[in-house]
Structure formats: structure tokens, C-alpha cells
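Entry 14. Structure prediction run on the chain below.
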Amino acid sequence: MHVKGLGLAALSGLVLSIAGCSTSAPSVAKSSLAPSSGESPGLSYSATAQTVLGSYSLAGNTGPMHDPSMIRQGSTYYAFTSDYLGQSGGYLLMRCSDDRVHWSGCGAVFQQMPGWTGTAVPGALCLWAPDVSFFNGVYHVYYAVSTTGSQRSVIGLATNTTLDPRDPAYKWVDRGPVMTSKPGDDFNAIDPNILVDTDGSVWLTYGSYWSGIKQRRIDATTGMLSATDAVRYDLATRPGTADNPIEGPSLIQHGGYYYLFVSVDYCCNASPVTNNYKQAVGRSMTPHGPFVDVQGTRMTDGGGTVLIQGNASWNAPGGGTAWIDSDTGESFLAFHALDMSHGGAPELWLKSITWQNDWPVIQ
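Output returned:
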């Protein structure tokens, strides 16, 4: 379903249904959240942050979609995105492109919610924030199961030997829960992201609100949490900022640094114009931190350099996943932004990353 073909009344309902499936803020009144514009305390801003969303170049099935994650198999690019209430075609929808510009629907990971989700997270209606990666000869899609404003959350896993639905070997296998959180924990088990490090180790970075972004080691053979390394790393948080609005981590390695991309501030208010979501970044010499922004402020102290922020036409960019094509060396950031000319409908954006003085620049 392509939202630009909908009437305004239907579009408004669709935007709210996406927010209902995709927001993870603690339970506070939406009207009491942060202001819709202005710079946020503790953050620094790149010189190009306000110009990235100047023009839109993608076409086809580009929305509605939140929280895209991208990978390439052969000559085809695949994007996986969060669900929204009432969508057709299954859960964790896939879009495909041969040129990174023209996109079409090409299936889904699940045709129904995995059976274990109803018991693990009562009331969950959607799957959120899928992250696609390839290691141990298999494609892995980690995803979140939760409900709005709750810490009763689970990160799940599905695997496949191929992403091509035309391949006879194409079959998604539900691997079940990877990790959970519950009310009273200091973290929320959503927004997973995988880094396969240069030494072959695999790291799951995750988290949303509460005390911020965390990291655990993954067993590369099973795809589950390591049974021999239970160390949890705390990577980023926003002390002193109401609700600690940081989520959607994405970790990549380039040159001599590791780069932690995050979404900060608010994505999903009922009125799209009041959202002030942004994409920010910090870097570290290790995958476990400490991560600092361009001014040297640690991300555990609320730092982060904003790479993309909204404008009057496209608001609240975020939910992004950074990805480096291992064959070509090209760097990309896939994210969503709200099309304000169509009631704040979330659309796919894909931007190239260049590197200047060991910092990412979004083109």
C-alpha cells in the first residue's frame, strides 16, 4: 500500500497506526514531549545537517516505512522495515531494487506473527526495527517485539540462506527469542543491530530510551547471545534529557574507527509537525566505546553529532541503519523521514556516506 494514493483521512489514520506499532517511548503524555524544533542540549550539529533532505530521488514502493535496514545479494538491494497496523502482505515487509532508486515489494519474512510472540509480549500486533546481516553463511534478520511505551520486549531472530524469493532454497526459519527485557530493567530489548567485526566476532547493539544503548556478544554459530561472554557494554545515553530519547543504534567499522549512529529525540507524536527526530553519530577506537562526537563529548554523557535534521518538507529523519558494501566499499545510510506534503507519511531515504577527516558526511 503506497500512502500517496490515500485520502487525507485514511493517511492520518495510517500515520497513527505506524506510530502505534513503532514508538517505544516511556508512557508519558505525547503533548508533554520535547519541543518540535530547536537544538537539543548536549548535541553538536554538522554543517550539512539541515541540507541533507533538500531533494527526494527515490521512486516506487518507498512507503509507508519506518526503520529500514539494507543489504545487497548479487545485483539486488533488499530493504527490511517495521510493520504498521493494517498492512497487507505479511510481517517485516521486504523491498527490492536493482539500482537503489526504484523500489518494489518482494515479500515478507513472516506471513503471520511467530507463535511465541503472543505469550512473550501480550498485545503485540507488529514486528519492529528489523536488522539484516550476513554471517556464518546465513542471512540473519533480528527484529523487536513490543508494545508502545513498554519494557516487556523481545529481540527475535529469523534466518534464511538466500534473500531471493525466486530461489528454491528461499525459506525463512523462525529462530525464536534472542533476548528479553521486562518492566524494572534498566534497558529495553528493541532496535537490534549487528556488527560483524574484522576478527569475525559478532556484536548485538540495541536499546531505546530508559538508560540508552547497550551491547552484547553474539555466538556466530547459533545467532544467540554468547554463553561464554555475558559482558554488557553501555554505549550511549542522554542524562539530563527528559525521557532519555535515544534509540535505533547502528554500528559500523571504517578505517581506524567504529561509528555509532543513533536516532535522538522524538519520532512519533500524533501530530507529525511536533516530531523532532534526528540522526546523530559518534566514533570510537573499539566497538565497545567510549564513543565521542566531533567536539569530544562522550555519548554516555549525552554527546552526539547530528548528521540529519528535518525541514518544512521532510521532518523527523531517523530510524537509520548504516551499511558498508563489503564488495564495493561504498557506505550508505538508510533511514525514514516524514513527508509533510502527505500528512507526515514516513518514506524510505537512502543516502551515500563519504568520509572526511575520519568523520561521516551525508551527501
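The chain has one domain: 3-362.
Filed with the rest of this week's runs.
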